[in-house]
Amino acid sequence: MRKRLTAQWRRGVLLLVTGCLVAAGAAGCGDAGNEHNPPGANARVGPVLIRYAHIAEPPDGPWEPGDDAPFYLWLFNQGEDTDRLLGAETTVARSVDIVRADGTVRGPVDVPTRKLIELEKGRTHLLLRNLSRQIRGGDYVWVTLRFERAGEVALQVHSQVPTYVEDATDAPGLTSPSPGG
């Protein structure tokens, strides 16, 4: 049941975000007086919209030098021709690879027209390899994305702030009640 609800929620969010991207272009959802800016870095390069670009939250403290940090983002191509994400670079890592869910290098990602491409956990995503410095939740770093047709765009990307919960129940974000309270 929980798995089905999660899938339904995910489909609903996907439809909402896709509709907003198509209807509102680079501005986001909403009217001029009440614009919505989703978390993470958002940008446009040519006809390609970039949304929710962020470094995954550090699991048990900050990302340390030598660590590999996952980098997630969504892409939506409003153009007439398919584009491809060729790669990325940053000064805070030895390299940035496009990898499959299992971490193996896969190479460029097609970005077809009018289709949302989610590069995220459990799917193809980017991986900042061999970090050169510590990155804590809340830190920002510059990452440059390279597309075959649209060109390059530099983003100031946020490392998600961890949400650590001690003695948690199985419900996300809830802590167990204190004894006798």
TrEMBL record:
Keywords: Signal. InterPro entries: LpqE-like, Lxx211020-like, PCuAC_sf. Pfam families: PCuAC (PF04314). SUPFAM superfamilies: DR1885-like metal-binding protein (SSF110087). Residues 1-26 form the signal peptide. The keyword Signal applies. PANTHER family: BLR7088 PROTEIN, COPPER CHAPERONE PCU(A)C. This is Copper chaperone PCu(A)C. It comes from Streptomyces erythrogriseus. The lineage of its organism: Bacteria, Bacillati, Actinomycetota, Actinomycetes, Kitasatosporales.
